[in-house]
Specification:
CATH topology of chain A: Rossmann fold
CATH class of chain B: Mainly Alpha
Largest sheet of chain B: 2 strands, antiparallel
CATH architecture of chain B: Orthogonal Bundle
Strand content of chain B: under 5%
CATH superfamily of chain A: P-loop containing nucleotide triphosphate hydrolases
Strand order of the largest sheet of chain A: 6-7-8-3-9-10
Structural class of chain B: mainly alpha
Number of helices of chain A: 11
CATH superfamily of chain B: MetI-like
Mean pLDDT of chain B: 90
Structural class of chain A: alpha/beta
Number of strands of chain A: 10
Distance between the termini of chain A: 36 Å
Largest sheet of chain A: 6 strands, mixed
Helix content of chain A: 25-40%
CATH class of chain A: Alpha Beta
Order of helices and strands of chain A: HEEEHEEHEHHHHEHEHEEHH
Helix content of chain B: over 70%
Low-confidence stretches of chain A: 1-10
Distance between the termini of chain B: 62 Å
Strand order of the largest sheet of chain B: 1-2
Number of helices of chain B: 12
Low-confidence stretches of chain B: none
Radius of gyration of chain A: 19 Å
CATH topology of chain B: MetI-like fold
Number of strands of chain B: 2
Largest interface: A-B, 26 and 17 residues
Oligomer: heterodimer
Number of domains of chain A: 1
Strand content of chain A: 25-35%
């Protein structure tokens, strides 16, 4: 692993939130990622686009190591999150997941109350420090306010999270990450289960969170990548083809494959 | 070579023609209907039969007070026969209660291990093994109680007789555990994987995922599993007949022999005159058992259905 350079040592926040070097991944005998080298800017929204099966979700799911739920996954290479390789043997999985939150394609609030959903991650990572009731209410309120849900559901915090509308569920799933204070948020097609109105609302929310969190968002929807991200990565067949500022990638793509994809010639 | 084009459309269309397949379909439908309805017919039939046999007693000799509140079951007393099932209920309840204390940790532990930790071949072979355990006939369990547990209890606890609540409770617990394990495992499997994934992504350890997410989500199914175990305990006959000591007695300790409701019927029915008050009293116990197990199973079923819906 590279030693942090002087300029990142002087600066408290590293320039890149996620850096991968020669990342290869196999599902059994099938290789899904080939030598992925990426530097993802800290505090920006980066979108991952590409046709189905190009490895964008696979890549996303290796940044919090949730891929390892499948025991036939094998990974080589390194992923540094905030300058620490999360595949080092001394790394605790829990700490990775604390640093890197994830929002899934299908909203997956737990079948417990809205309040308990918000406090779930917080209580996992604050063992021993018994937060007072008032503190907890404060956490619930500020988290829900940040995802623009507070006014709508403040009177029914004891309702089950799974009883909300899909849009609200997805916002709740984002809200429950915030008390854990992650630096990176991974979003795997967070709007694909939502209708256009819900999509707009969640996109707006993601845009609001920009700057505070590094957000990596996988999307099938090129228009969404274009309007809701600052940088964009185009992947094809498990390889990174192009990584640029979003407006440059869509206006003046450098690679022919990128141009063909964004013009809809395939995919 | 075919003389005519095989795809040639016929000149006429007969929409009303009924071939062999049509009749077979109708017959099969009818047979399946009869098979399906027969389960209900049989249950109603059994209930009617038991009630009918016990009816005379219910009308003439039955005293609610004596039947449920007297601890004396002395149906063959020449002068004043007494038909009190309190001691028998206490016997069944104490054995079933102890059985649940034994079975719940074993079966939930096994279900959690099979459902959440074991993978691949280990998991599959454990499941088969549990099914096999559930198929052991109850007389074999009774035999184990009689010939292994009995001397073991005498040795370990220095008591004169080893056929008692402890013996029957442990045997019944081991008997009920496999079926409870398999139902509890179904309940765990019914918890959607995305809950586990969500909890893991939030940084939960494997145990936290189970304890904070899977078990609460599966709690109805787990409760159903326990209730079915209780139902099994209430209805079990042979093993408790062999392992309890079969003495009418309200137990004061684990080492007291007791007698179960079911075992009483099994042991006495063959020796009573058909239609006598004793005979009818046994059938009244049957009605009582039928109602209790029916209610337990119904509750368990409703609870388990509850999780499927919600």
């Amino acid at each position: 692993m590279k030693i942090a350079t002087t300029d990142t040592m002087n600066d408290t926040a590293p320039k890149y939130a996620i850096r991968t070097s020669r990342l290869n991944l196999w599902y059994g005998a099938f290789q899904a990622l080939f030598d992925v080298d990426l530097n993802i800017d800290n505090g920006r929204i980066t979108s991952l686009i590409g046709p189905s099966g190009c490895g964008k979700s696979t890549f996303l799911r290796s940044v919090n190591r949730i891929n390892e739920r499948l025991d036939y996954v094998r990974i080589e290479g390194a992923i540094d999150v905030m300058d620490k390789n999360i595949y080092d043997p001394d790394v605790e999985l829990m700490q990775v997941r604390k640093q890197v939150g994830m929002v899934f394609q299908r909203p997956n609030p737990l079948p417990i109350s809205i309040r308990d959903n918000i406090l779930f991650g917080h209580s996992l990572h604050n063992k021993g420090k018994n937060a007072s009731r008032a503190d907890r209410e404060e956490i619930v309120e500020s988290s829900l306010k940040q995802v623009l849900l507070w006014d709508k559901i403040k009177d029914r915090l004891n309702q089950k999270g799974t009883e909300l509308s899909l849009e609200e569920q997805q916002k709740l799933c984002i809200a429950r990450l915030l008390p854990v204070k992650p630096s990176v948020l991974l979003m795997d097609e967070p709007c694909s289960a939502l209708d256009p109105k819900g999509t707009a609302a969640v996109e707006e929310l993601i845009w609001e969170l920009r700057g505070e969190y590094t957000i990596l968002i996988v999307t099938h929807n090129m228009a969404q990548a274009r309007r809701a991200s600052e940088a964009c990565i185009f992947m094809l067949m498990g390889k990174v083809v192009e990584h640029q500022a979003t407006e440059d990638l869509f206006v003046t793509p450098e690679e022919k494959e990128t141009a063909d994809y964004i013009e809809g010639r395939y995919g | 070579m075919l003389e005519v084009n095989p795809l040639q459309r016929p000149m006429t269309t007969d929409f009303d023609s009924r071939d062999m397949d049509w009749y077979i379909d109708k017959i099969v439908q009818f047979l399946v209907f009869v098979a399906g309805i027969s389960a209900i017919v049989f249950i109603i039939g059994i209930f009617v039969f038991i009630t009918f046999e016990g009816f005379g007693f219910l009308l003439e000799d039955f005293s609610f007070r004596e039947f449920f509140l007297s601890p004396f079951w002395e149906p063959s007393d020449e002068d004043v026969p007494e038909y009190g099932i309190l001691a028998l209920v206490a016997g069944t309840a104490s054995v079933t209660g102890l059985a649940m204390i034994v079975a719940i940790p074993f079966s939930l532990g096994a279900a959690i291990f099979i459902g959440e930790f074991a993978t691949g071949k280990l998991r599959e072979s454990l499941k088969v093994l549990v099914e096999l355990l559930a198929a052991i006939p109850s007389v074999v369990w009774g035999f184990i109680g009689l010939s292994i547990m009995n001397p073991l209890i005498i040795d370990l606890f220095d008591v004169p007789v080893g056929l008692n609540v402890l013996n029957a409770g442990v045997i019944l617990g081991l008997m009920a555990a496999p079926i409870m394990t398999s139902i509890a495992e179904d309940a765990l499997k019914a918890v959607p994987d995305r809950y586990r994934e969500a909890a893991e992504a939030l940084g939960a350890t494997r145990w936290q995922v189970i304890y904070k997410t899977v078990l609460p989500a599966a709690k109805n199914g787990l409760l159903g599993a326990v209730l079915l175990g209780v139902g099994r305990g209430f209805g079990e006959t042979m093993a408790v007949l062999m392992a309890t000591g079969h003495a009418v007695n309200i137990p004061g300790s684990l080492f007291d022999p007791v007698r179960a409701l079911t075992a009483t019927i099994a042991a006495e029915l063959g020796e009573t005159a058909v239609g006598s008050p004793h005979y009818q009293a046994l059938f009244t116990i049957g009605i009582f058992l039928f109602i209790i197990t029916f209610l337990i199973n119904l509750t368990a079923d409703l609870i388990v259905r509850g999780i499927r819906k919600g």
